Amino acid sequence: MKIKRLxxxxxxxxxxxxxxxxxxxxxxxxxxxxxxxxSPLSVLKALGTLAITSEFWLTSLYSLVRVILGILVSxxxxxxxxxxxxxxRILNSLLSPMLNVIKATPVAxxxxxxxxxxxxxxxxxxxxxxxxxxxxxxxxxxxxxxxDHNLVEVAKIYKxxxxxxxxxxxxxxxxxxxMAACRSSLGMAWKAGISAEVLSTPNxxxxxxxxxxxxxxxxxxxxxxxxxxxxxxxxxxxxxxFVLEKVxxxxxxxxxxxNNDKN
Amino acid sequence: MIKIDKLSVKFQNQVIIDDLSFTFEQGIFYGLxxxxxxxxxxxxxxxxxxxxxxxxxxxxDFQKLxxxxxxxxxxxxxxxxxxVECVCHDIKKAEYYLNKLLPNAANxxxxxxxxxxxxxxxxARALSYDAPLLLLDEPFKGLDEETKxxxxxxxxxxxxxxxxxxxxxxxxxxxxxxxxxxxxxSPVSSLTEVKSGSTSFE
Lengths: 263, 202
Hints:
The complex is a heterodimer of chains A (263) and B (202). Chain A is mainly α. Chain A folds into two domains: 1-32; 38-250, Orthogonal Bundle (MetI-like fold). Chain A is built from ten helices and no strands. The longest helix of chain A is centred in the C-terminal third of the chain and has 39 residues, at 162-200. Chain A starts with a helix and ends in a 13-residue tail after the last helix. The model of chain A has no long low-confidence stretch (mean pLDDT 87). Chain B is of the alpha/beta class and 202 residues long. In chain B, strands 5-6-7-3-8-9 form a six-stranded mixed beta sheet. In chain B, helix 2 crosses helix 3 and helix 3 (91-101) packs antiparallel against helix 4 (115-128). The chains are: A mainly alpha (263), B alpha/beta (202). At the A-B interface, helix 7 and helix 8 of A face strand 5 of B.
């Protein structure tokens, strides 16, 4: 029964992929120009050609490391800022406008400005942080504000230590908000990181390859690298959330028995 | 002993308790009654340090206290056993009280329990804390008669020799107390002792 259900869902996914590949092939056939809209086959060929080179794997790895580093730094920074601003009204008043300015400013403006201030290798990391920090900051702040006051009273009555308050009350209360922030920011962080790479063209970067593919009008290659970005984005998101849930479960800080989705 | 000296408590600019003085003696089980909303829970909260006072002082000889709230207030991400164990830090003691009040529920999460079951976990948590002072705010509300009987028995056994204050409207529950106090006027400025064994406490 379970195998039958698995096979059914597999067929469903394959069917959806086949449908969209067929649409893609049809449009490409109608456009009839590999330069404007390459066929799935030529993109697959381009991807195959890329995948057998060591540069491809190195480039993907470097981009991946840059973005993951950016995400990790941002998660820590965003959570720390949330704690600080929720603890201090003065700091909240001082720092909150900055959060709104960052949220409202186009990423491209930051990239162009950051090109003047930073070297091309650290720029994608900085841009990733700019995207992720406000999301984590506002989500974790909301989580801290939503901690059940009744449970805070229980912790006070039973004289919870600072460590117990943190691990048994605050972290489980905030965890669903933090997880939601991770889910919504990972994809955006990856896209922003790659955009920053396109404009700053660091060595060994997917964005740089996208830039060159555009410059030399290698549209199948452009599509192939884009496919790589999409695939890696999905893998990162799933892997990151999986790892966070496992670590949280191991440390008993992720709520069990309650719905973790908050958004 | 808990000494309340000229205590005043305001809530959203409304005076709930006004210049109240009273002394709760050690080892006595007090019942506290009065009309709904008069300030019984506020007084318990003030004694527990949960409600800010606007004037006066409360001095207590007790280093720690157990509190059974009207609502269970369980940590939703912990099992019933973990909810008890997190305050007493003694798994055997936690198992003892939980099995006594709610057997076969150790690994259940609060959302898997009914309101009455949750309340029994909350009572087990307060008892396992082993405090010399127990504050009970309508602790048996929502329990069926049979469950209520053995829960009351467990609480009474625990209370022996300790100081306890029970907020209740139930004459049967209040009849178990050594002394019954009534809040008569709002804002509360005195606690009137009602004759124990009275049927109406009026």
